[in-house]
Design brief:
The structure is a homodimer. Chain A is of the alpha/beta class and about 200 residues long. Chain A has one domain: SPOUT methyltransferase, trefoil knot domain (Alpha/beta knot, 3-Layer(aba) Sandwich). Chain A has helices at about 25-40, 80-90, 110-120, 155-165, 180-195, and strands spanning about 1-10, 40, 45, 50-55, 60-65, 105, 125-135, 145-150, 165-170. Chain A has a 7-stranded mixed β-sheet. In chain A, strands 2-3 form a two-stranded antiparallel sheet. In chain A, strand 2 (about 40) and strand 3 form a beta hairpin. The longest helix of chain A is centred in the last third of the chain and has 17 residues, at about 180-195. The radius of gyration of chain A is 16 Å and the shape is globular.
């Protein structure tokens, strides 16, 4: 079963010149989402891939992909991830070259990534939004991709684009942190396959 | 509706002489649990109280209580909470004196806290454990207290004590991080009252 998360980061910085993830356009939210996507107690989710599309200065977009299948030598803490993200953003290579196992970077846009997930990989696309269909009522397919925004949300244009390929889903009226949404989705999907 | 979380931290340091929460007996896990207990997107859960019982050196136990109703001037990041926890552990006062709004410390033990929650406050106690009753099948009462361990789990003795007052519940076979457990419990309880 394919399970992927795409974080649309509206102002996430696209060069490595920052002193903290928080001040780099809230890349601390990206760190929290990486942890909730990929980490279990004493282990990693090998069947999950996490993507962030950074749209902040100076050179957007940057697509960072973290592949649970090949990821290793990582911990949950922010210092570990600040190091990995800095190294990845410093990498001058244009395509998918890895500076840390499982972590890669390219210039693929949000729209191009989404289109390829829907049309080439035949994934079902779910866009998190308050007015969407209740998560627990969804019949998930074999390949699910979940799209969510950071603290400022997705721009209308990106959201409209995403909805051409997918449907809106909702976790209810409580406004969860982005990372909490991912934890809940992982739990609901785990329930469907394992209890 | 009362909703409280108690984290049993087996080696969490009980003085403020540390350079990082991670190295202070994994108090970084306490930080993650505070965030998942109390933080929403752009807001706090005013109806949630978080407790940690620190059982590490040099002077266990220390009970730190964070009350969502009165908590303010906080962010989700680890630096904020490292500061608050250090200040709280530095405080020489013996009882519930606050060094940050909503955050207090005393010498109440795990056993005493649990007993008072069950017998004085009439809360229902739920202990997280793999073999427990499935979370989604529980009929929660008006006052629920959830007990969980950190990365090393609770000692058998503490768990046996807790089970004199409550029942085991489980999130399934997936071994979640402590903070993820709290996020999932908050979500499941939100669903029961709000969707």
């Amino acid at each position: 079963m394919v399970r992927e998360f795409i974080l649309f980061s509206r102002i996430g910085q696209t060069d490595p010149n920052f002193s903290s993830l928080h001040d780099a356009g809230r890349l601390d939210i990206m760190h929290e989402c990486i942890v909730s996507s990929l980490f279990l107690s004493h282990g990693l989710r090998r069947d999950v891939t996490f993507h962030a599309i950074l749209n902040g200065p100076p050179n957007p977009p940057v697509h960072i992909k973290i592949d649970g299948e090949t990821l290793y030598d990582v911990r949950t803490d922010i210092d570990t991830w600040q190091g990995i993200i800095k190294k990845t953003l410093s990498n001058k290579a244009q395509s998918q070259q890895q500076v840390h196992p499982g972590v890669s970077k390219d210039k693929v846009s949000f729209e191009a990534l989404l289109k390829s997930k829907a049309e080439t990989d035949n994934c079902k696309i779910y866009v998190l939004e308050e007015g969407g269909k209740e998560l627990s009522k969804i019949e998930f397919g074999e390949k699910s991709v979940f799209v969510l925004g950071d603290h400022v949300g997705m721009p209308r244009k990106a959201e409209t684009f995403a909805l051409r390929f997918g449907e809106k889903i909702s976790l209810g009226k409580t406004p969860y942190l982005a990372a909490s949404c991912i934890t809940v989705i992982n739990y609901v999907l785990d329930q469907k396959v394992k209890f």
